[in-house]
Structure formats: C-alpha cells, structure tokens
Amino acid sequence: MTTSVFGTSVAQLSLQEDEGRGIKLLNAKEDRYGGVIVELEEAMEPNAFAASLKASMDHWRKQEKNGVWIQLPLKLSSLVDIAVQEGFRYHHAEPDYLMLACWLPSRPDTLPANASHRVGIGAFVINDHREVLVVQEKSGPFGGSGVWKFPTGVVDEGEDICDAAIREVKEETGIDAEFIEVLAFRQSHKGFFGKSDLLFVCMLKPLSSEIQKQDTEIEAAKWMPLDEYVNQPFILWDGDAATAG
User: Fold this and answer.
1) CATH T-level assignment (fold) for domain 117-244
2) Residues in domain Nudix hydrolase (predicted)?
3) C-alpha distances in angstroms, 21 versus 13, 14, 51, 65, 239?
4) Among 23, 32, 243, 245, which residue is least crowded by beta carbons within 10 Å?
5) Sign of dihedral through CA atoms 208, 209, 212, 218?
C-alpha cells in the first residue's frame, strides 16, 4: 500500500526558479512522511524536463526531503528514461500512469513497497436440496480438466469481498445470491506475476435457481449434489496444469 503517495498534505510546493540559473522547479505536493509527490500533466520537452528534474532534486536534497514520487501519465512515458538516470525506479503502474520513486537520504530506504497480494474469492453456493453450484472453466489452470469447482474470481479495486462473491456468481452462472459468511481463507505465494494470493471462500444463499452460464469463460455450470462434489478425484495444481490425484 503506497501510503506516502496517498497521504498528502494540503500544502503545495509552488513553481519556483532555481537560484542563479532561471530553471523552473517541478510542481510538487508534500506528503505526510517528509517526501514530495510530482504529478506531471502538461507536456514537457525532454531537455526541459531533465533540467527541471535535476534542479528540483538538488532543491529537495537541500530541504532534506525523504522520498520523491513522480506520477507519469502515458502521454509522457518518453520521460521515463530521464528520471531513471536521476536515480528513480519503477514502483507501480496503473492503466493510465506509471509511478516512479526515489529515496534521497543516505540512510536506508523506507519507502513502502508496491501492493504484495492479489485478493480472490471462491463462492460456496448451496441450496435447500443440498446441491452445490459448480462450474467448469474454459481456460486457466482447470480448463479442459473436467473438474467441477466453485465460481471464483478476483476482487476489484474498492470492492468488498462479500460483493465480489455475489458478483462473480451472477457473472459466471446467472444465479442471484445472498452473502452469508466467510468460511475460510488461504494464502499462497509466487502466484500471478510473482505476487502472493489471498483467497476467501464465502458461503452464499441462492435467491434463484435457473442457471445462465457465462459463455466467454465457463464451459458448463450446474447444481451438483454435495456428496458427488466432495467425491470428485482430488486435484493437484503444480502452477502450470491441473492433474488428478
């Protein structure tokens, strides 16, 4: 979680000129941890950016600032190499920007790391007939394996776990459901692009019964007797493929 980025103060470091050189410093906001955040929006020529960045870095060092964050929109991606040459590194990226970071003091770097986990859900939906809602996936680790599994998915940014479970069930099977409780969770490592993974298994009560499967991702969906579900062959996943055990 990038607390230094989002924990900004109201104070704004206004545009200044470097003494004796007439070089404009970059606009920056102070964060709550003794650092500054630069959010570039207007186009800049590479040479002008290089001069302003160098002068700004000297200015911030004199002010004994800690971390410097530069948020570069896609349209200014050509400036990345210039920032890297000044000591910046990649921190994280979103669809519309790249965040670069640089630690100024000589003491050890304490800038927070990028998000370390991805959060997912598995939906255990059971009806009054002791039937479990299950799906077969078209792709992914279980694609083509014949395995019947819970509807699963990734929690969206800003979405609660309970809402994600309801949404995934609706998207994959067309079933409306009500969240009851979290049954269990597990943590695993070295998952999606090397990130750790948290999966929450949620119990849901179905509010409808007619299945309308998602054609793009789901091969099949059905209500399966609970006893039949638990008696499936045990499945092992080695990170690349699913195999029956």
Assistant:
1) Nucleoside Triphosphate Pyrophosphohydrolase (3.90.79)
2) 116-245
3) 19, 18, 10, 22, 57
4) 245
5) positive
pTM for this prediction: 0.74
Give me the catalytic one of 30, 86, 171, 217.
Answer: 171
Q: Name the residue ranges covered by the structural domains of the chain.
A: 3-103, 117-244
> Within 10 Å of residue 68's Cβ, how many Cβ atoms?
28
> Rounded distance, CA 161 to CA 170, Å?
14
Please report where in the chains the tokens 């059971």 appear, as a residue: 126
Inter-CA distances, 46 with 52, 77, 86, 219, 230, Å: 10, 11, 13, 51, 62
* pLDDT per residue of the chain (245 residues) written in tens, 0 to 9: 333 444 444 344 444 555 545 789 999 999 999 999 999 988 899 999 999 999 999 999 999 999 999 999 999 999 999 999 999 999 999 999 999 999 999 999 999 998 888 999 999 999 999 999 999 999 888 888 888 999 999 999 999 999 999 999 999 999 999 999 999 999 989 888 888 999 999 999 999 999 999 999 999 999 999 999 988 876 555 544 443 33
Homologous superfamily, domain 3-103: Gcn5-related N-acetyltransferase (GNAT) (3.40.630.30)
**Separation CA 119–CA 159 (nearest Å):** 10
Q: Cα separations (Å) of 31 from 12, 46, 63, 106, 189?
A: 10, 26, 14, 19, 32
Give the residues across from 199 on adjacent strands: 120, 186
Which token pair is 179?
A: 């969240």
